[in-house]
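The instructor's notes for this session suggest beginning with a concrete chain rather than abstract definitions. Hand out the sequence below and ask the class to guess, before any prediction is shown, which regions might be ordered.
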Amino acid sequence: MLRQRVMVSIKVFLEEHFGHFSKDDFGSKSSLQAGLAISSAWAVTSSAVVIACQIWPDSSYLSYIRTAIPEAIGPHLWNVIGTIAAMAVGWALLFPRVEHFARFANYLLLTTFGIGILMFGTLAGKLFSTSPPENLSALSRAGLYILVAALMMICFALNFALWIAASLLDGTPKHARFAQKWRQTTLWLRLAIAIAMIALPGYLLVTSKAAPSGDATCTAATGTSQQHSPGTSTAARDTA
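After discussion, reveal the predicted structure:
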């Protein structure tokens, strides 16, 4: 009963404060198709390159690309640019009439999207070309595949959300319609959302600590031995 009341209260709150928005205000069919096409192109291309490096590990033509793969998987650059982009979106929401804030946020969101989808494709290529530990049972192996697939879907959805957010701040008539609807939202709610998007990412940016590199994490998770650059080999051995 309590859960039902909470759900009803949330629904009433959303309808009261955001009911003037329509589905078309958040992206047209053509915009979604363009985002999916670009995402697929980047992901498939980067995955193919990684798989090629795994198939021909001794190829001198792929040596430089092979060295760059661990750097593409590392999440730190994505986190930093994405955090700054979120803060820029906060400023764009705080001052919806100032187009310069919206355009700056749009550029940062698209940059974060590009980095993220490249990282997604690279990681997908690593996972496709790496076998799980042989000592896993059939049930554990199936559970691992399901978990990895779910995490990859979440990763792709997060990056695609960046594309949608960027399309709302691109200076087109659709952005003008969204900005007009946003200005109709209750003032205190606009201020609360905008300030939260400025303050919270900024706090996380200055207080977060570096996580293990993506390549070392992938190696530890799969239990396989791979070659790393001198800066990552020690971390991989310690993790293992």
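Then share the key points. Confidence is low (pLDDT under 50) at residues 213-240. Residues 24 and 110 are 21 Å apart (CA to CA).
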